[in-house]
Predict the structure.
Amino acid sequence: MKALIAGAGRLGTQIAQVLAAARNDVTLVDIDEDRIAELEGRLPVRLIAGDACEPTRLEHAGAHTTDLVIAATGNDEDNLVISLLAKRQFAVSRVAARVNDPENIWLFDQRWGVDTAVPAATPLISLIEEATGATDTVALLRLSKAGVDVIETAITPQSRAAGRTLAEIALPAGTVIATVIRKGQPTVPTPEMRLQPGDELLVVSHAATEQEIHAAFQ
C-alpha cells in the first residue's frame, strides 16, 4: 500500500512508523522544515517539507498514485482542505482525517472528501484500523498484504519490563521491536536501550499473539 501522511507530529510519525514497519510505501509531509530535518534518518519513510494544503506539494508527494491519505495535522481546517484535495483533485481511494475539536466532527464527511473521521483521542492502532479499513481488534492491526501483525504496548511503572534493557526481554519467535516511542519521538531500538515508564513500543510479528507480546512486557 502507498500511504501519504500530512502532519509530522506525534500522531503522524507514529502512524508512519507502523505502516512502514509493515512494509508499506510511506510519505510524510509537514510544513515545519525543522521538524522534517529532525526526523531525517529516524524514520524509514520519505520525508517532504511543505504545506500539504497546497495542491502542488501534494502532487510532489505522490498523491496521484497514493492509495491512502491521512490528514493528521493539529489543525482541523488544514485537515479538511487536505482531505478535499486528496479526494477531488487526486482521486485518492481512501482518505482519513483527524478531528482535533469534537465540535467540528460534523464537517468531516464525504462532502469534504473524508471517508473516515477519527477523533484525536482515538488509540493509535484503532486509528490505523479505521484509516486502512482493517477489521481486526482494536489492539491488533493485521496488514494482510504484508503478512505481519503490528502490536502496540505501553510501559508503565507496573510493567515487568520497566527498567530492563531490550536484550533482557525474551520475545516470541519471529518478533522484532520496530520502534520505541519516547516523549513523542520514535527511536531506533538497540539491545542496550533501557525501557522507561511512558515508553510506547510497536512490535512486529509474523506469529505472536497480542497476549504473548503483553506477557513479555507487562
